[in-house]
Automatic annotation (TrEMBL):
Any single Pfam family the record assigns to this protein: PDH_C
Organism: Crenobacter intestini
InterPro entries associated with the record: 6-PGluconate_DH-like_C_sf (IPR008927), NAD(P)-bd_dom_sf (IPR036291), PDH_C (IPR046825), PDH_N (IPR046826), Preph/Arog_dehydrog (IPR050812), Prephen_DH (IPR003099)
Identification of the protein by name: prephenate dehydrogenase
Keywords, ordered alphabetically: Amino-acid biosynthesis, Aromatic amino acid biosynthesis, Membrane, NAD, Oxidoreductase, Transmembrane, Transmembrane helix, Tyrosine biosynthesis
Domain spans labelled Prephenate/arogenate dehydrogenase: 6-294
Enzyme kind, highest EC tier: oxidoreductase
Family label: Belongs to the prephenate/arogenate dehydrogenase family.
GO biological processes: tyrosine biosynthetic process
Keyword 4Fe-4S: no
Gene Ontology terms for molecular function: NAD+ binding; prephenate dehydrogenase (NAD+) activity; prephenate dehydrogenase (NADP+) activity
Enzyme Commission number(s) from the entry: 1.3.1.12
Gene3D superfamilies (alphabetical): 6-phosphogluconate dehydrogenase C-terminal like domain (1.10.3660.10), NAD(P)-binding Rossmann-like Domain (3.40.50.720)
């Protein structure tokens, strides 16, 4: 049977939550979408754009009518939201999320929804951009992209199957992983690069002649720094939520950078070239796989 939901509540109607609602509506898998948000202007925009059918600032009232609740706010907001919805959640309502970190979300579900764990299914769509808010929501964002589910040991099979089926209806390729492995993998391939991009641009911006330097920045700078345009609050929360794994990745990167610095200081061109070749080969192989996966 095709997974579908009568009433979906999206808490945080931005790029990720809004695009999920749009995709499910287009696939005919949801009848009614209620958006819950903290910014009235953003909620108004979501309504005007047809991303949601109804907006509400009353989380409990909205959840009381939900077949499924998707949390798509920054991960730092999720504990308070789980706590606020807990008393009003109908027994069968599925609770899922789209947060970029999974160990923290699982712990928050345990803390705030201890009686509801069978219906909780943490998830992470591996698609997005540096844009945010309801106006950034788009059809097709999840087409051909991966989604990682990190079910709890308590999650019901049918709740997992529904969440899986809905993401598949969005065009996604759904995988399952343990939360610990998830957070380790994404610390290296997503969280570290964002931290580096923010740190790098901030150092240039701090120079007294920054504008002069930015005047001449071109495509290399654009490609390396696109993700430094991402939402600062969202990335603060991700970094803090995955702090241990991210610190490990940062230490490893700093060791690699120190090695490269030594090679540069010693004008050891051969060693530098070998490092660059290993990186280029790995990146080329990855990019071919990425293109095949599209
Ligand atoms: N942007 C990406 O590339 C990406 C990809 C995958 C997962 N994610 C995750 O998805 C989540 C949402 O990211 P996004 O890019 O859609 O962000 P976004 O800024 O576009 O949307 C988040 C929305 O949540 C709302 N919000 C914040 N606090 C709230 C609260 N307490 N109650 C109700 N609404 C609240 C904001 O007003 C905003 O509209 C984050 O947890 C992020 O880690 C992001
Ligand atoms: O394309 C981007 O801008 C993204 O940052 C998307 C991206 C990533 O690939 O790192 C960011 C965070 C996620 O949780 C998943 C995807």
């Amino acid at each position: 049977m095709q997974a579908s939901i009568d009433t979906l509540v999206v808490v945080g109607v931005g790029l990720i939550g809004g695009s999920f609602a749009l995709a499910l509506r287009r696939a005919g898998r949801v009848r009614h979408v209620i958006g819950v948000g903290r910014s009235l202007a953003n909620m108004q925009r979501a309504l005007e754009l047809g991303v949601v059918d109804e907006v509400s600032t009353e989380l409990g009232d909205a959840c009381a009518r939900a077949g499924m609740v998707l949390l798509a706010t920054p991960v730092g907001q999720m504990g308070a939201l789980f706590g606020a919805m807990a008393p009003r959640l109908p027994e069968h309502t599925i609770v899922t999320d789209a947060g970029s970190t999974k160990g923290d979300v699982a712990l928050l579900m345990r803390e705030h929804l201890p009686g509801h764990l069978a219906r909780c299914v943490p998830a992470h769509p591996i698609a997005g951009s540096d844009l945010s808010g309801a106006a950034a929501a788009q059809f097709g964002l999840y087409e051909g992209r991966r989604v990682v589910l990190t079910p709890l040991p308590e999650s019901d099979d049918d709740a997992v199957a529904t969440v899986r089926g809905l993401w598949q209806a969005c065009g996604a390729d759904v995988h399952e992983m343990g939360a610990h492995e998830h957070d380790s993998v994404f610390a290296s391939v997503s969280h570290l690069p964002h931290l580096l991009a923010f740190a790098y641009v901030e150092r240039i911006a701090a120079r007294s002649d920054a504008e002069r330097r930015f005047d001449f920045a071109a495509t290399g700078f654009r490609d390396f720094t696109r993700i430094a345009g991402s939402h600062p609050e969202m990335w603060r929360d991700i970094a803090l939520a995955n702090r241990d794994a991210l610190l490990g990745e940062l230490d490893d990167y700093m060791a690699g950078l120190a090695r490269l610095r030594g090679q540069l200081a010693g004008a050891d061109g051969e060693a530098m070239q070998r490092t660059f070749e290993r990186a280029r080969d790995a990146r080329t192989r990855w990019y071919q796989r990425f293109l095949r996966g599209q």
